[in-house]
Specification:
Distance between the termini: 72 Å
Structural class: mainly alpha
Order of helices and strands: HHHHHHHHHHHHHHHHHHHH
Helix content: 55-70%
Strand content: under 5%
Number of helices: 20
């Protein structure tokens, strides 16, 4: 039989696991609420006001009954942030979200977190929001959920929560992926109520950029390069990452820093920065590729403004092996080649392209939704 001294650490560990599970519920609800706000601003131009906390607390408590594990439900009701969470829950219900479907899935996430913390003893130090912005880019597909998180006033709190959960041994990528799916569910439920219906219309920027500049990149179909701050959020590039990528380009062009600044000022720069971020996440030598800009300066004689010429030359240098820089072997990308090498084309089709013509051309990542929509109308 265990002694009280032996039971105390166990109880403390169980309590910590439960509190971390509550933390995960707060995170998922914050993401769902960010999606709600984003969708309402997009469709109505404003967010619906939250109901008073005193009014929502009782109604939200009724909604929880039988939909969450009893220990997690009880811990939520005792949590200091419960009034705010109750407001979020009732706002989601008012917006058309079925809580009887949402809450059990949130409960599954919380149970997973609770069990991971209880079984884990390691502790890892957090690294701030930059770490989590990079993880979002690597874990979540480009789109409304990712942008809603990064543009939310609550993002620093979300990042702090991610750090704390990671320090307790939680598989944060798994939680983010699950929360992303719930965010999509919230978006779809609200789309029905707000008569949004179809997938987002492809923006003019996304259509104009389709080709070598965007080959293999995961860009949202509603990419908006006219709003630079939003464009960086859409491709999950933090201000710190942007400054670092700018510095890398300037260092790769000694004596030509002003030319590099012209490129960074170009409208399409967020797309090139997104490619650099993707290469870093894949462990590719970005600086080695950028060195090709001074080895092959044929971009100086191409038509167009200097900033735009250099931007396309940089994109080309990033997509070809560093060893070919300065050899005159500038990469030529036909539309067909770009389609076959797109990240959305399966390996079988790409491998068999020499022996048989594909039934349908490949589609770049940011074109998929529009092409699917056109197919339905035929």
């Amino acid at each position: 039989m265990s002694t009280p001294e032996q039971q105390e650490p166990f109880a403390e560990s169980a309590g910590e696991a439960l509190q971390t599970a509550v933390m995960s519920v707060r995170l998922v609800m914050a993401i769902a609420d960010a999606v709600r706000r984003h969708q309402q601003r997009k469709m109505k131009g404003e967010e619906d006001e939250l109901l008073p906390a005193a009014q929502t607390a009782v109604d939200a408590q009724e909604e929880l009954k039988g939909l969450l594990p009893s220990d997690i439900s009880a811990a939520l009701l005792k949590d200091a942030d419960w009034p705010q969470m109750a407001q979020q829950l009732m706002a989601l219900k008012k917006a058309g979200v079925d809580l009887e479907q949402l809450l059990p899935r949130v409960g599954e996430i919380a149970v997973s977190v609770r069990d991971q913390v209880a079984a884990n003893e390691a502790r890892v130090a957090g690294e701030g929001t930059g770490q989590w912005e990079r993880m979002l880019r690597e874990t979540l597909p480009a789109g409304m959920v990712r942008e809603a998180m990064l543009s939310s006033p609550a993002w620093p709190d979300m990042a702090a929560t991610l750090s704390e959960m990671d320090a307790k041994g939680v598989n944060v990528r798994q939680i983010l992926a699950a929360a992303h799916d719930e965010g999509l569910g919230v978006d779809q439920a609200m789309a029905k109520v707000l008569s949004a219906g179809e997938t987002p219309t492809m923006s003019r920027d996304a259509m104009r950029l389709w080709g070598p500049l965007t080959e293999g990149l995961d860009l949202p179909p509603d990419l908006d390069l006219s709003d630079r701050e939003r464009a960086f959020r859409q491709v999950a590039i933090s201000p710190q990452d942007n400054q670092r990528f700018t510095r890398m380009v300037r260092e790769a062009m000694p004596g030509r820093e002003r030319d590099a600044d012209l490129m960074v000022a170009a409208k399409q720069w967020p797309v090139v920065a997104s490619r650099m971020a993707k290469m870093e996440s894949e462990g590719k030598p970005v600086k080695g590729h950028l060195a090709g800009l001074m080895k092959d300066t044929s971009w100086e004689k191409r038509p167009g403004s200097l900033g735009t010429r250099l931007l396309h030359a940089t994109s080309d240098a990033l997509r070809r092996p560093p060893a070919t820089a300065g050899t005159g072997a500038r990469r030529r990308v036909s539309t067909t080649a770009a389609l076959l090498q797109s990240s959305t084309v399966g390996p079988t089709r790409a491998q068999n392209s020499k022996s048989e013509a594909p039934a349908q051309p490949g589609v770049a990542a940011h074109r998929e939704s529009a092409v699917a929509k056109q197919g339905k109308t035929r």
